[in-house]
Amino acid sequence: MKELVDKYAGKLALHGICDDNEPIIGGLDADIVWSRDGSEQQVLTDIMDNLNINSILFSKPAEPFLSIMDILSRDTDTIYPEDSETRTFLHDIPVAGAFEPEKIIPILKRRKTAVVPGRGIISFGTVSPEQAFVTYSSVCFSLYVKFLTDYYYSIKAGKTLDSHYHEVVRDCIDSYGSFIHEFSSYPVCTGPFHNEEEVAAAMSEAGRLTVSSRMVDSFFGNISCRLGDTVYISQTGSSLDELEGHIDPCPMDGSSSAAVTASSELSAHKSVYQGTGYRAILHGHPKFSVIQSMICDDLDCANRGLCFKKCSRGRHIADVPIVPGEVGTGPTGISTTLPPALSGRGAIVWGHGLFTTGKDDFTDAFASLLDIEKTCFEQYCSFINYR
Amino acid sequence: MIHIMSTSKLYGWTGRILSVNLSDRTHTVINPPIELYKKFIGGKGLAGHYLRPHIMESWDSPTMPLLFFTGPLVNTPSPTSGRMTIMSRSPLTGTVGDTSVGGKLGIHIKKAGWDGIIITGRSDTLCSIKITDDKVSINDAAHLAGMELTPCLNYIGAEGAAALIGPAAENGVLFSTIAVGSHFFAGRGGPGLVMASKNLKYMHVHGTGKTAVHDMDELKKAREEIFRLASASPILRGELGIAEFGTGALFDLMHSRRMMPTKNFTRTHFPSAPDMNAWHYREKYKTKKTGCAGCHILCKKSSANGSPIPEFETMSHFSALLENNNLDLVMEANSLCNELGMDTITAAATLACYAEIYDEKLAPGQITGLLRDIACSEGIGTELKLGSRLFAELMEQPELSMSVKGLEMSAYDPRGAYGMALAYATSTRGACHLRAYPISHEILRKPVATDRFSFSGKARIIKLSEDMNAVIDSLTACKFIFFAASLEEYSRAYSAVTGTASTAQDLMEAGERIYYQERMMNAENGFSIDDDMLPPRFFNEAGSSSKDIAISPLSRDDFKQALLNYYRVRGLSETGMPTEKKSRELGLK
User: Residues near B127 by Cβ (< 8 Å), separated by ≥ 6?
Assistant: First the structure.
């Protein structure tokens, strides 16, 4: 347990969503272990004593997430992001009045997380500290996307925003811009691949790059490669920077269900391979691709509010289509909506993420991931007249 | 026992329990107070409350109740709410004996206006119970003696729903099932034998009423959240998941993880497995989807001619465990067990134990012949019908029964998933995979993956999972949907249906109470730490390792430490006994 709480405390800092030494994670079996000592321990222990959980995480998020959290928490007890992650898994993000057990316990009895303005984000797990880490990371992602999406619509509507709001937007843009433009690593494993070992090595490399380029948060996303009549795909819930041993081989003819642990988007990947000559697919959740997918000026559209499953227009960003799609299967699921759209270098699923393709390997898929995200970033800057 | 019902309108619950006494052929109505419903929810929880005063009686005592209980979500639009609980004291193990079962019986019980049915007494002759809404009649069924499942169902007719026993129960098989329709079976622990001891061949229920829902709009919102999560789940709705392949979807996975019990658990890898997976069943038998009433997952599969396709446990145990590589034989064995009324897991595991004791590989004809011998209580069947533990004891080789508390292990080798090892041991009904189902996180990676070769953290995880599954079986819902959803969404459904505002954590507190009560009942019958133990094989022998996966023997010391940790987390003594303090804290004393 100690190993796990330390691992996920470290990952939060590694992902840039917390500063070093900020996260504190407690893991409980018969006894409790902590990732570090701290003044928060008493409150967190009191909370754990009142909940049927096995781990708890609290941390002040790094900037700009802290400021975003504080702004979105103003005058509300619940934040309602509309991205896919929130809609599917978090439902909403409650706001706690103070970092006190009596304020937080009632919230965590019904939700996985709470934000405490000025203090931080708290989350928990029932099986592993990893759940708390994933929830924390999802909250940061969802708040970021909501903040900048809301900002666009506020500007568009001519609303007056205070100077702090504008400053935080500027911080978001400046920090993200410098990071994405300075990122210069690319895959070196080139195809065509000849065996399972080469495929695994290429997928692991591309997974690590997708994480280090911050094209995903925590482990969200998935990655696959076709070799002959087998699709190799990352397992559901696998961390893209730790793919070794977490890749499922899946026969195209479905003759084995050993890959039942594969990503929920296996069907979408397979359909793309069946309909195209691509050999690699990369899927991440780059922030501005998601934000731009959620910005649509057709305010009177009959499907407004249902964009995650219906779209009246064939929207594009440059050559990249934007399609509706809910996680997984069904008529409005990504497995249905994505494959027809993914005939070129990439496609964006509304409020969810970006899929890109590779002819023989991940070099072009990864390059497209970065390039499309940069295009979305620049388009957003243009939309808000950022200078 | 007549309670005065609250005058306020109930939602979700009907407020009525039917009590039938077969000795004097009378019935009464019990109106439990609302506080009792809130305390035990329904289903497994409420059934446990009514079993507890009788738990020290013999399973065949006329006063031993046989309980059929639904939960508040049953017969509402809440997803996967077509299930129910059947409970009594297990003839096979002597423990609490409950089974969650699907089909449409639960819905008809609820439609008929009952939260549960309690059957006590013993009829002089074989009889049946017919319930149509609030009309109850007890009828002669002597002419159905020895009748198998299909003809008996044909006799009963398609209207409504029925629970029935086969000839195995009438012949004293300790692992007899109660069939619910043609595809659903309450099998583990032998509840069919309790029904047979009451001389009850079948119970038929036909209900026509509706269940009141407090806030339908709110329920629809909860339902939408649950459906969305189910669609996002590869194990549920993915193209390789259980909606497509049934629970057989797990077959390849267990094989690839080197934890498929083979040759009475002497090995964990079966070379013929790739030719016997769910895909082969689909190709050969042209399977169709079916499932419980009101379920959108439809995990049950049937062949083109309507025969049930074996569940994963049956697929695995009637192939790998017996070293059988004949697909048709698995189908036949499954069909025989269903028709004759025997639990497939215990049946196959008892044959595997027999094969090891006699050091022989059973031929196909032997397997089917022995199954018939058991059901008819003929020849060696008179001993095999006692299950593997008593049979192995008779043969003076008790260590060759792969069971805990007398209940045989299912198709997950504990050396390949340490949480499963602990959960087999702590389960209140013996080596059951479903009490905590750690396979969810140790293998299926839901809600997140845990290290399957470590006991670290597992004590608390198992305890929490047992509590959660106790809630699920009390609501009642299907455990499978909890691969995707959680009590966060189901507490919203529960609140919407019943009008009782509850959070996920509130329900977990009820789950802890329900599970602890079972622990108390077992303790009253003498179960303690000595019974929370795996067979020695798992500590002494390795499984079948591959170059990437080592299946080592379990460390006895690590296991014992995990067990002691579990006792601490569960609030039990160091010998696994309930404590006065915890019992009072949970409102059980």
Answer: B22, B138, B139, B140, B141, B199, B200, B201
pLDDT tens digits, B447-461: 999 999 999 999 999
CB contact B464 to A (< 8 Å): yes
Helix B418-426, helix B458-475: angle, nearest 10: 60
Mean of per-residue pLDDT scores for chain A: 93
Please answer yes or no on whether A126 and B464 come within 8 Å at the CB atom.
Answer: yes
Quick count: other Cβ atoms within 10 Å of Cβ B28? 12
| pLDDT at position A259 | 86
- The answer on pLDDT for A85 being more than 90 is no
Q: Give dist(CA B170, CA B154) in Å, integer.
A: 19
What does the pLDDT look like over B60-86, one tens digit per residue? 999 999 999 999 999 999 999 999 999
User: Which residue of chain A comes nearest to B502, CA vs CA?
Assistant: A110
Distance CA A304, CA A290 (A): 17
User: Which residue bears the tokens 């993956």?
Assistant: B449
Q: What is the value of pTM for the model shown?
A: 0.94
CA-derived radius of gyration, chain B = 22
Q: Is the pLDDT of residue B5 over 50?
A: no
Q: Check if the beta carbon of residue B413 is closer than 8 Å to that of residue B260.
A: yes
Q: Which two tokens stand for residue A38?
A: 């701290």
Q: Do B240 and A266 touch (CB under 8 A)?
A: yes
To the nearest whole angstrom, how far is the Cα of A189 from the nearest Cα of chain B? 24
A327/B503 CB distance under 8 A:
no
Contact across the interface for B252 and A328, Cβ inside 8 Å: no
Does the CB of A276 have a partner CB in chain B at under 8 Å? Answer: no
Is A210 in contact with A282 (CB distance < 8 Å)?
Answer: yes
pLDDT at residue number B263: 98
The tally of CA atoms less than 13 A away on the side-chain side of residue B88 is 35
User: What pLDDT band is residue B6 in, cutting at 50, 70 and 90?
Assistant: very low
Angle, alpha carbons B112-B115-B119 (nearest 5°): 90
pLDDT in tens, B405-425: 999 999 999 999 999 999 999
Token pair, residue B133, equals: 């809404």
> Can you give the pLDDT at residue A258?
87
CA distances from B342 to B128, B312, B334 (A): 20, 16, 9
> Is A256 in Cβ contact with B274 (below 8 Å)?
yes
Q: How far is CA B348 from the centre of its chain?
A: 17
Search chain A and give the residue with CA nearest B463: A52
Question: Any bridge partners for residue A222, and if so which?
Answer: A283
